[in-house]
Design goal:
The chain folds into 2 domains: 81 residues; 67 residues, no CATH class. Strand 1 and strand 2 form a beta hairpin. It is 64% helix and 9% strand.
Amino acid sequence: MGFHEDIAKLQHHFKLLEREYEQWFSGALPTPPIQTRKICENIVREYNRNPPRNISEQTIFSMHQAKFSTYMEMWNRRTRLKEEGRLPTGRAERSKRVQPKPTPGEAANHDEPYRQVFDTYVAAKQRAGEATGKINYESFKNALSKQADQLRANRGLANVNFGVTVKGGKVSVVARRKKS
């Protein structure tokens, strides 16, 4: 096989490896993707031993090797957390988030959007490996409510929604204009 075929194979199997690891971390797969990982490792190992002679091919390989190494470090860390029981799996997370449905007319109906944002925020922080023990729902809800009131007053917005974003590994809550 030539260099370009090997790189295409590495790219294909790396994408497959990403999907399989995410499925394993979420609990959808029973075992980690060892076979796919070995295929990627063998290609990288081969080109480490016999690097391409062409400068452009060396650059392409270095880029793929760096990406593979970075992801392997992350997956190894997450695997360790999972084995220690500190990485929540999909089923465990879903069972924690199941909330009893409030009866009609209760004040809890007003809190529902805040509860959804709170649950999403806590889950995202846990996935990012951040501590969530000190996050209090009432404080969270009060802070969002105050922010919504300020946005309504300062920007003249009638309705405000909140969402959770992850940028650069940082989890944050963002305000959005509610579509009518």
